[in-house]
Amino acid sequence: MTHEFKNMVTAYVLAREQGLKAVLATVVDLDGSSYRKPGVQMLILEDDRMIGAVSGGCVEKDIVRQSEAVFNNGDSIMMTYDGRYRLGCEGILYILLELFQPNNDFLNAFDQCLLNRDDFLMKSIYRKEVGAFLGIGTYVELQQKMYSLSEATIQHKKEDSLSVFTQKMPPCFKLMIFGAEHDAVQLCKFASLNGWEVTIVSGPLESKTIANFPGASSFYAGAPDTKALQQIDTQTAVVLMTHNFANDLKFLIELKKTNPAYIGLLGPAHRREKLFSQLMEYCPEIEGEFIDRIHGPAGLNIGAETPQEIAISILSEILSVVRNKQPILLKEKNGGIHA
After folding, report:
1. Which CATH number fits domain 174-322: 3.30.70.2580, 3.20.20.70, 3.30.1490.20, 3.40.50.720?
2. d(CA 35, CA 50)
3. Among 53, 165, 184, 289, which is least packed by CB within 10 angstroms?
4. Alpha carbon distance 154, 42 (integer Å)
5. What are phi and psi of 80, to 5 degrees?
């Protein structure tokens, strides 16, 4: 959810330049079941624009309506939304509404946090009741320093009767695509729609630029630089789809000391085995854990044929691997569908 919060901060900065206030809504507690879980957030601007969502669309209208009181008097409030009769989710959401007023110190520290791909903590102080209460609000901890997101919160100390919802926020998930053909463009589009940061690495002879890849955040021609390789972490997936055996092998060798969550290879199984054989010949010292991260052919068996369908197949496999879930039909799953 880091990318969602990042989008809210970006929207807030633009709204502040226009003289508009913003209210942050955070689901901090839940009785029963819900479409989304505690920790999800959305931002409401003074002109009724919304960034993000806390449900499939049913709760948001009530949040916008109740945020009017926060805009008017600046007090942080708690609201509830009972979905048992309106949504059929059999859950009650407890939602914290507060003016979103991060200062420039926070904005600078947050930008640096994103750039460094550091984890950070969000702590929402709340009361499981409806109304306005002193001391409720959200803090962000960056590099062991706390920043209040609301001026109203920072004026009051936490009372013993209040609760704290804490969530650890990892770096934005990143996808590195090695390749610049049409199927790479489609994978880039779908990944960026999912909120992922997408880096494109083209082949050495490709005449492409970042303009050819809608949604991409960075582009390298020929090979990624050292810093880009160093930033490959457990919140990064890699897909090799250059359609060139020599290039795929070259990139695999460059990646051998990195620690991505997932590496996908385009192409049939016999091509994968040939790549593995060549890789072991050039790098006999390579770690077995690195080989275990490689998935080839990349993607889930959903009958994908078009580049767009193949992109969905690959992204689905990445999600299942990163979240350690065995893909099954939801109708065959016991228990909550989002558990």
Report:
1. 3.40.50.720
2. 18
3. 289
4. 21
5. -125, 160
